[in-house]
Amino acid sequence: MTTPAFRYRVPVLLACAAALAVGCSNGKAKDKGKDPAEADSAVPVEVQPLRRAEIVAVHSGTAPIEAHEEAEVVAKVGGEVRQLLVEEGDMVKAGQVLARLDGDRLRLEVAQTEANLRKLERDYNRQLELSQKGLVAKGTAENAKFDLDALRAAYDRARLELGYTEIRAPIDGVVSARHIKVGNTIAANAPTFHVTNLDPLVAYVHIPEKEFRKLAPQQTADVVVDALGGERFTGLISRISPTVDRRPARSARASRCRIPRDA
Question: Could you report the per-residue pLDDT of 125-161, keeping only the tens digit for each?
């Protein structure tokens, strides 16, 4: 009984050994055919657990940063510059006096007009009293009243022109340029100062039309200033232009980004 069992067990063991030999020889052949560089080309990966986060779409462009308000201050009357009260770089408030012109001639005109006004007021009161008594025609008092109103207007205009000898700042800001010096004789409408309001700053960005619907007022916008070494400021989209610029170089909608000065 033992002999047949042994007889049948040997071929099975030999068959398994042959299969293992063939498998080992095939694997060694494949390893010999590979490039050593390919064998070491493993890619490291980092695995993290799932988490919820925001997806942000970014559009970048270039635009100059401009002042929110600028004003060219001109002289409303002519005259000689007698006094300068501010210099470039000084902060000023709206209505602050920046310089004074020679107002001697205008002061004399105001004094002369005021004297004529007092005389005409006295004549009008006399004509009105005589008209009420029936001593003069009513038209005489009415004509005197017209002359009095005209002279009052001339008096107010003379005082206004005298006030224009003080050149005042129209807006809050910083004096970015001074065009006059003491002793200069300037004419009316001559530029004297340039005042710039730097709070806030604005940037007009031209974007492709396809990006238009992705933007909305009050969205945040980061601005990187090259002149400050790439310093980043965060601003807000103030408004979006409703029109499209059809020129090929600037076929885009312009959005205005307000950058607070203290950002």
Answer: 888 888 888 777 877 888 888 999 999 999 999 999 9
User: How many CB atoms within 10 Å of residue 141?
Assistant: 18
Nearest to 81 by CA among 170, 176, 165: 165
- Burial (0-12, 13-18, 19+ Cβ within 10 Å), 180: buried
What letter represents residue 33's amino acid?
A: G
As a whole number of Å, the CA-based R_g of the chain is 45
pTM: 0.64
Tokens at 231, concatenated: 């310093």
Answer whether 107's CB lies under 8 Å from 161's CB.
no
How far apart CA 227 and CA 66 sit, in angstroms, is 14
Nearest to 151 by CA among 122, 125, 127, 116: 116
